[in-house]
Amino acid sequence: MKYDHIIIDEKDLKLLKTIITNSHKNKNRNYYSAIKRLRKELEFATIISRDAFPDDIVRVNSIVTVQMATNVIRSFQIVPPETSNVIQDKLSILSPIGLALVGCAIDDEISGQFSSTITKLKILKVLQN
Predict the structure, then answer these.
(1) Fewer C-beta neighbours within 10 Å, C or N terminus of the chain?
(2) What pLDDT band is residue 24 in, cutting at 50, 70 and 90?
(3) Closest Cα to residue 119, out of 71, 73, 77, 68?
(4) Please, is 101 exposed, middle or buried when counting C-beta atoms within 10 Å of its C-beta (0-12, 13-18, 19+)?
(5) Which among 73, 67, 71 has a CA at the least distance from the CA of 109?
(6) Taking residues 40-47, what's their average pLDDT?
(7) What integer pLDDT is reported at residue 33 of this predicted model?
(8) DSSP letters along 78-121, please?
């Protein structure tokens, strides 16, 4: 990781803590794995104000371009669950990919089980929205 740990702002931290608190309601194995990883990373996360937030870090509403292990390049926006829409490339922060990317930076590589197989993603670009 570029910053050795995830960096997050106060607003996103509050949202993620709510998600973790309510995670027991979701029995999906991939989701559970993403929550477990997120919980561990939040223990060491750096919390900063939105005004001082680096532009290269993924947060809620960021538009992220990633390269998959298959060399496919995809762009999508990480959004709150109520505004997610796969057709519009708006990926819920509650999705395993969304949870894995929040707090990570350009050039970070993330491995995880995002579908039926373990996948590796590399963050190529982050735009703040």
Answers:
(1) C
(2) confident
(3) 68
(4) buried
(5) 67
(6) 88
(7) 74
(8) EE-GGG-BGGGTEEETTSHHHHHHTT-BTT-EEEEESSSSEEEE
Burial label for 52, CB within 10 Å (0-12, 13-18, 19+), is: exposed
Q: All domains of the chain, ordered by start, with CATH?
A: 7-127 (3.10.50.30)
Which helix or strand (DSSP H or E) is residue 25 part of?
A: none
Q: How confident is residue 108, by pLDDT bands cut at 50, 70 and 90?
A: very high
- Give the dihedral of Cα atoms 21, 26, 28, 31; nearest 10 deg: -30
Residues 6+ apart with CB under 8 A from 79: 60, 61, 90, 91, 92, 93
Higher confidence at residue 3 or residue 105?
Answer: 105
Q: What burial letters (b/e) apply to 54-86, b meaning 16+ CB within 10 Å? A: eebbbbbbbbbebbeeeeeeeebbbbeeeebee
What local confidence, expressed as pLDDT, does residue 104 receive?
92
pLDDT of 39 higher than 90: no
